[in-house]
Amino acid sequence: MSDDxxxxxxxxxxxxxxxxxxxxxEGPAPGTESPRLTPxxxxxxxxxxxxxxHHGEGAPAHAVRGVDLAVRQGEFVAVxxxxxxxxxxxxxxxxxxxxxxxxxxxLDGECADAWSEARWAVERRKRLxxxxxxxxxxxxxxxxxxxxxxxxxxxxxxxxxxxxxxELLGELGLAGKERSMPGELSGGEQQRVALARALVNxxxxxxxxxxxxxxxxxxxxxxxxxxxxxHQRGQTIVLVTHDARLASAADRVISFFDGxxxxxxxxxxxxPPRRAGISGVxxxxx
Length: 286
Prior knowledge:
Layout (H helix, E strand, L loop, with lengths): L44 E10 L6 E11 L4 E5 L6 H8 L7 E6 L2 E2 L5 H10 L1 E4 L11 H11 L4 H14 L15 H13 L5 E5 L7 H16 L3 E6 L2 H4 L4 E6 L2 E7 L20
Parallel strand pairs: 3-8, 3-9, 6-7, 7-8
Antiparallel strand pairs: 1-2, 1-4, 4-5, 9-10
Helix pairs in contact: 3-4, 3-5, 5-6
């Protein structure tokens, strides 16, 4: 989770209106209930007009510049581009880790504009799994505790949390590592623990921020294989990467440059890019 990827959600202005205008769909005023779109018109994740500028000691850095994006249930979307293009900032906006300066985000048809930090934290436990480049494991907790913690925080009974943890660790090749500490694992193993932690609550949406950025080629192949496996089971994934190998595992690739979407292409459908532009990953169908 391009600028032109949600045309069905926009009003047709080519003919005179004979009906009353459609309701305004931007974020609600503070204190009002978040509006919901009907399932027929609502992608799992939608962003409209996202803008984010970082202010530091130097000139302002325009990380995200008016991005529109829609991600359908079951899609595997890779957002790729050079370092500094704004890819990670976009993912952090989509996951509620940063707030946009302007624009709106909808999760499963519900506008998130009025969500508090606490509400976003709840959503990240239940509906959003996030994997980071540097794992972000709790160093003084065991592998088992790192994976079970999000489930327990979400109110899952301990017995069920243990069962989910055991199943995930077994599937990810980490059986027998439950009592290990993160510092005792290789980088690839730590990233698999982070993936298990992100998926333990079976979230509808998985956001992955450069998940192989700290791994060698073997670890990168393993991450690609695991993401592909979960996607084949219906997991919706938005992946941020500068690695063309990882991007080639997706079924849709968005090329991101200077805070904007330059290309948006379905890799398996053979359709042309939704937006013309330059892309270094559009020839990855092989």
